[in-house]
Specification:
heterodimer, A: Spore Coat Polysaccharide Biosynthesis Protein SpsA, Chain A, UDP N-Acetylglucosamine Acyltransferase, domain 1, 2 domains, 8-stranded mixed sheet, B: two-stranded parallel sheet
């Protein structure tokens, strides 16, 4: 979930960015082998974030914690990126200090989260893991935004919460009109209608007579073909949505669609309806990466202020 | 006194796609030719439906209505309903939970449809159904 783009950015990038800005150092990212390449693309390393591949991510994370302690780190934050939460790092560290170094676990109103703050003093990864499994730990209440990302519907809720400013995340694009965000390289036909709040991702194409509305987010490298309505839906990166369709209350990824209203997921075998979509690299290179593109014309500050 | 035609119930194949549509239409078209055809398409076996399948359903409905008849769908799965919604045709068809309910809906003034008023079309009786209807 953390490597899926939501309104133009991944949870992974946002969380690691937040930690860096808060001064956390060093930062290690332990990823299952299959997702390492994706994670490396997302993380702004600058040499500050170390990405490690592992089959047993928690064991490897515990091993890192022991290494940090041997290098002199006194407090280590261990967290799973399968949820999105907005932390106040200084508050966490202060609370941990007040707990006199007891292992502390993050909680919200729904229960415990996979977030721990541990002090030094653990000689082996096994000891760290045993500590994480303990039920008697100090509780840290996370008062900021939390989304557990348990299922695809949670991703959709996150997108809606971003649109309604219920969390710190903002759409990663330019707000070309109130509630309408368009990312770099997107092409929106002048005869398409965007009724905000909506988000159109990088290099995504929206054809004429389309209607995008009701907190819909169409992520990067997508195409929404002629006359289609996307309403209260999430179109994931690299998806083609065919002509004349009515996509409502759904999450689409390539040829897979999950209808949140009926609770049904299916694979559409007809490529004229839904399919995976890739923007050819040659075409991508011709697009101006610096400015969003609407109506076949490049937006510029002068045009935005006209009228 | 108006004489009602029997309602013909026909089972759709599990794959309603470009490959299967042609053969199915060959079987169904003769049953749409008489005046006021009354057709129920049983969708209970349908596992895959694509744009060609939807187009076929629309074509059959149009043909039935041209002759002052009707065509209804029965036992449409949630997955098939989503495809029909996606393609904006869900509201065009009358849908029922079972073929029996769909058949009964044709004549609300006669709630107890007699068994010989509903004909189930199959490979063995298509020709005779066509002649009889």
């Amino acid at each position: 979930m953390s490597c899926i783009e939501v309104l133009g950015q991944t949870i992974l990038k946002v969380l690691t960015g937040d930690l860096q800005r808060a001064g956390a150092n060093p930062i290690s990212l332990v990823i299952e082998s299959s997702a390492v390449e994706m994670a490396e693309r997302e993380v702004d390393r600058n040499g500050e974030i170390r990405v490690t591949r592992a089959e047993d991510v928690w064991y490897e994370a515990a091993l890192k914690a022991v290494e940090y302690q041997k290098a002199g780190v006194t407090t280590t934050l261990l967290m799973s990126l399968n949820a999105y939460f907005e932390l106040d790092l200084s508050d966490i560290l202060q609370s941990h200090g007040e707990m006199r170094g007891r292992t502390m676990r993050g909680f919200d109103s729904e229960g415990p989260l996979n977030l721990w703050c541990i002090a030094s003093g653990f000689a082996t990864p096994a000891r760290v893991l045993a500590e994480l499994r303990m039920e008697q730990v100090a509780a840290y209440e996370i008062r900021g935004y939390v989304n557990r990302l348990n299922d695809p519907g949670c991703l959709r809720r996150l997108a809606i919460d971003v649109f309604h400013s219920r969390c710190r995340l903002r759409p990663n694009g330019r707000e070309v009109q109130p509630g309408v965000w368009i990312a770099n390289g997107a092409e929106v036909d002048q005869r398409a209608s965007l009724q905000g709040p909506v988000f159109i991702g990088c290099h995504t194409k929206v054809a004429e007579q389309c209607l995008i509305e009701q907190c819909s987010n169409v992520e990067r490298d997508c195409e929404v073909d002629f006359g289609t309505t996307v309403s209260d839906s999430y179109v994931m990166s690299n998806s083609y949505v065919g002509m004349g369709l009515d996509m409502s209350h759904s999450i689409v990824s390539g040829s897979n669609v999950m209808n949140l209203e009926h609770g049904v997921m299916l694979k559409v075998s007809d490529p004229s309806v839904l399919r995976e979509h890739k923007v050819p690299s040659t075409l991508r290179n011709r697009m101006d990466p610096r400015r969003p593109r609407v109506d076949g014309m490049l937006f510029s500050p002068a045009e935005e202020n006209a009228g | 006194m108006e004489v009602h035609r029997p309602v013909i119930v026909m089972q759709l194949p599990d794959h309603l796609n470009r490959e299967a549509v042609g053969e199915f239409l060959n079987d169904l078209t003769p049953l749409l030719e008489p005046h006021r055809p009354r057709i129920v398409l049983d969708c209970s076996q349908v596992t895959h439906i694509d744009s060609a399948g939807v187009e076929m359903l629309l074509h059959c409905l149009a043909e039935a209505m041209k002759r002052d008849g009707d065509l209804k769908l029965a036992a449409v799965s949630p997955e098939s309903k989503i495809i029909l919604e996606l393609m904006r045709v869900e509201g065009i068809f009358e849908m029922f939970e079972t073929a029996e309910k769909a058949a009964r809906s044709f004549d609300v003034s006669v709630p107890d449809l007699a068994p010989n008023d509903v004909w189930h079309a199959g490979p063995s009786n298509l020709e005779s159904l066509r002649r009889a209807s």
